[in-house]
Amino acid sequence: MTDPSPLERVRLDKWLWAARFFKTRGLSVKAIEGGKVRVNGDRAKPAKEVRIGMEIRVNTHVERTVIVRRLLDVRRPAVEAVTLYEETPESVVRREREAELHRLTPKRETGEGRPTKRDRRKIIRFTDQ
């Protein structure tokens, strides 16, 4: 693994993409413009310069709060991407709690809820006769 030359600052959209919070830079731009990303508590623009030590809140399916530890403007393997930031302990607890709630949420059984297209056709055939 060759480490690219050390950077002093990187665009926010590039850093989020390199840290693998989003699959594409376009998605990271949309999230930033949509208010899903906050830098040091404030809304930011995609061209905001990220520096080491900044706190970034990213709200995808669950809100994650991370501290920037390294800067990269190129996408590297996931093993390297996790070294770019450190997730705060509160964020880890919140994420684990939400994952547990998701696991405990009752799932509907097959056959419950709306009828399928096949079921609707059977109902129509039955009621027409």
Mean pLDDT: 90
Largest sheet: 5 strands, antiparallel
Helix content: 25-40%
Provide the structure class.
Answer: alpha+beta
Query: In DSSP terms, counting alpha (H) and pi (I) runs of 4 or more, how many helices?
Result: 5
Separation of termini? 72 Å
CATH topology: Structural Genomics Hypothetical 15.5 Kd Protein In mrcA-pckA Intergenic Region, Chain A
What is the general shape? elongated
Q: Give the CATH architecture.
A: Roll
Number of domains: 1
Widest β-sheet, arrangement of strands: 3-2-5-6-7
Percent range for β-strand residues: 15-25%
Q: Which sequence of SSEs, written as H and E, runs from N to C? A: EHHEEEEEHEHH
CATH class: Alpha Beta
Low-confidence stretches: none
Radius of gyration: 22 Å
Strand tally? 7
- CATH-defined superfamily: RNA-binding S4 domain
Task: Please tell me about this protein's structure.
The structure is a single chain. This protein is α+β, with helices and mostly antiparallel strands and 129 residues long. The protein has one domain: RNA-binding S4 domain (Structural Genomics Hypothetical 15.5 Kd Protein In mrcA-pckA Intergenic Region, Chain A). The protein contains five helices and seven strands. The strands form two sheets. It has a five-stranded antiparallel beta sheet with strand order 3-2-5-6-7. It has a two-stranded antiparallel ribbon with strand order 1-4. The longest helix has 16 residues. The radius of gyration is 22 Å and the shape is elongated.
